[in-house]
Amino acid sequence: MTAHVPALMPALPELILASGALLLVLIGALRGESSHGFVHASSVLLLGLALLAIALGDGGTVVTFNGAFINDGFARFMKIAALAAALVSLVVSQGYLQRHKVEVFEYPLLVVLSTTGMLVMISAHDLIALYLGLELSSLSLYVIAAFRRDDLRSTEAGLKYFVLGALSSGMLLYGASLIYGFTGAVEFGAIVKALHGHAPTGVIFGLAFLMAGFAFKISAVPFHMWTPDVYEGAPTPVTTFFASAPKLAAMAMTVRVVMTAFPDVTHEWRQIVVFIALGSMVLGAFAAIGQTNIKRLLAYSSIGHVGYALVGLSAGTDAGVQGVVVYMSIYTVTTLGAFACVLGMRRDGHYVEDINDLAGLGRNNPALAFALAMIMFSLAGIPPLAGFFAKWYVFVAAVEAKFYALAIIGVLSSVVGAFYYLRIVKIVYFDDAKTAFDPLDSSLKAVILVSSLVIFLFWLYPAPLVNAASLAASSLH
Amino acid sequence: MTVAAAFFYLFASITVASGFMVVASRNPVHSVLFLILAFVNAAGLFLLLGAEFLAMILVVVYVGAVAVLFLFVVMMLDVDFAELRQGFLDYLPIGGLLGVIFLIEMVLFLGTYYAAPEAVHAASTVKAAASTLSNTEQLGRVLYTDYVFYFQTAGLVLLVAMIGAIILTLHHKTGVKRQDIGAQVARSKDTAMEIKSVRPGQGL
Lengths: 477, 204
Hints:
The structure holds two protein chains of two kinds. By secondary structure, chain A is mostly helical.
């Protein structure tokens, strides 16, 4: 009997992460709690190794595991971004974990396993692999949301996320089963062939349920309700992670499914994407106005930003996908910087989360204040910062695809959204000063510095990101 | 009547009888034991159908793990089953109604086999490949080759579930004295005893 061994090399980054995680489970279990430092450092190293494996790996498009797994330009780009985001959020978590005495070795381990799931999601080329990757990443996220179990809000966040996440997984599975039932295929290429450019009602139903599951994962309206509560309740480093890598991976998964499994039935999914894009943009702009907790505010801001990114997807063109990729990359860099600032909000040894605690930052720590202001301006989309270009690419794609109304509403809601970003800048510079924050950890300093430099100087040299995004977008078909 | 048919009636009648006893017996431990008997006989039915993998899984997973877990739960938790059973008659109408609906659906479902056998065949378009291999072998051949990616990813999901359950529920109590045999054996006279010179007429 000759066994047929599938090609493993395309999945090298996943293999590195998975086998490394297994090894670290053993080390952690044998050496107990004292191994936290080692496991943390090794996890960072593992993520770095996986990143290197992608960066140094060969190009081209390879499908392996009987069509379940694809390694193409899009997957590589999104994987590098997700790995970098996971790495950064793991690095900045160290100080917080130490101060709260929750240094458990399982935390970095679950981040690595969750990232493995995200890579599987990004590379998924059929519905089963997609679901398994999604579940692997989500399950780890539920646990780390609740891992400060003596903290009521953290456990509440974990439970809320788990219950709603399970519901959304159910919807996604139901959609997948309908699609399988009506096309007889789970592999994306086979679904395209089975549809012949025409989607029967059953497939449209399935697509709607599938999109509902995706919308939950990227926290788009109307499946966004969990986001503010979970972002606020989860420990801040965990929120940092939630806002960056999983969102990126879920967006990549959404783009891949609609662009490679349903490219000929654009009209059907476009209605859904336009609707959730509109809803997210408007809700993100208006609901954040009344927030005083900075994590809650950033949660609503992330809902809004997902809406802007989806504007690019609703165009359904290469330019649109390129816009989504650019948008998500820039948003991830910005949001990591923003949460690094939140992690730096520490007064008398306690973490504070109210935006009024930022008062006087402009006088006490001008450098941090300037960086935070740049990040806020970029989130608002003010030129010449990176956030402006991110919005530019998606709106241009929408206008080219003749979605004028969508683009206009997007621009208008970003004007409304600018209000609360500017309010933070106003509090930082013009409100009555409070006592200074405790000195920042060096890892936070580095992340804030890199993030604000990228935001500030992006307009000088946008070519690498834009070209890579364009290559990634064109590799989807 | 062939031997297979004889065994079918043996297994089937014991399954039904023990299924009834699960509900009817007064002692909850007996209920669980009857449940195990029902599982084992159902495994026998699977064997007769040629599904030996399902039969093994039923014995290993349901009898070996799930039912034993039930048994532990029933014995460890002091559940007053007599009290649970008190409202039994109140729920009889709705329970009976559900039972009747199930019965009707089963009859309709099985009725299609007789009413329109060709429709049943048309629905199952995917035919099992004719093969001389047992289904355990067939599963084994694809699980680590065609479906190795799914299989391993599902394994990772289970690992995460395990880690998550441990991290969220395991409390390390401080101040619990555990027996450390190494430390006990390593005790010497110096560490175990302290000699105090007590003066007469004064305490310690």
